[in-house]
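Is it possible to get an amino acid sequence alongside its tokenized fold?
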Amino acid sequence: MDDAHRRATRLRADEFYGRYANPTVRSFEEVIAELEGAEDAMAFGSGMGAIATTVMALCSSGDHIVAAKQLYAGTLAFLQGPCARFGIEVTLVDGTVPGALAAAVQPGRTMLVLVETPSNPRLELTDLAELGAIMGPFTVVDSTFATPLGQRPLEHGVDIVLHSATKGIAGHNDATIGVIAGDKELIDAIWGYGVLHGAMASPFDALNALRGVRTLGVRTAHQAAAAQRLSEWLEQHPAVTATHYPGLRSHPQHDLATRQMSQFGTVLAFDLAGGTDAVSSLLDRIRLVHRATSLGGPETLV
């Protein structure tokens, strides 16, 4: 009974009831902390579990969030739906405009500044150094498209880096898992709410994600090189009106990408002449590429 009480009342016991602690999940968290250069990390049942838990752990009714409008649709839906319902005000700004995030901060009221860089789906960037210099609110970067080998936001002064590890980190399209990393004191505070929120990672998904980390370096290097070559080819194609990839010299933020990214990512986007009809025709005709909602796995997806 003494041992059970000690585990139930301490911060992040090594192992206990699975919502509180699990050794396999903990191993995954420690690996991500090391990759990100963080003091600690916390895993979740999905990327959205990581986002929702972090926001609700740090924000209360009457608080204010500044977020870049270049965000994954699920994140935007959460900010504009549940956050509004719980009385948390959200201001969306263009994260690519220098100074826009800092200008939207309301001193003493803004609790969180949230960005995703590179963004889903158009690979737009936010200046990490500029974000990290914002004083007052907690700063959070969704770095899913970059992975820890593409950029390290904490080195730029950002408080929390977040991943849908379902994607490039796990890397095999067979795990659903999210993770955050940062200073231990902050991660512990989020954990205190997270065990009540309940969006915890399963040991099986953590095991698959640990396996994925073993090949993360070779996978992302190969995929980034392929994305670069495809982007350069698509940029010259007469049916393509625009190609979006930070590694292209034509990308409006290419200089920023070279300053804050060590790899330009495994995802590209492009616009087709002819609009939705052209897109439908392309999707009907592809044979080698899979139509599926994910990224970062061994298959090429659209």
Q: What stands out?
A: The CA atoms of residues 57 and 190 lie 5 Å apart. The longest helix spans residues 216-235. The longest strand covers residues 110-116. The chain has a mean pLDDT of 96.
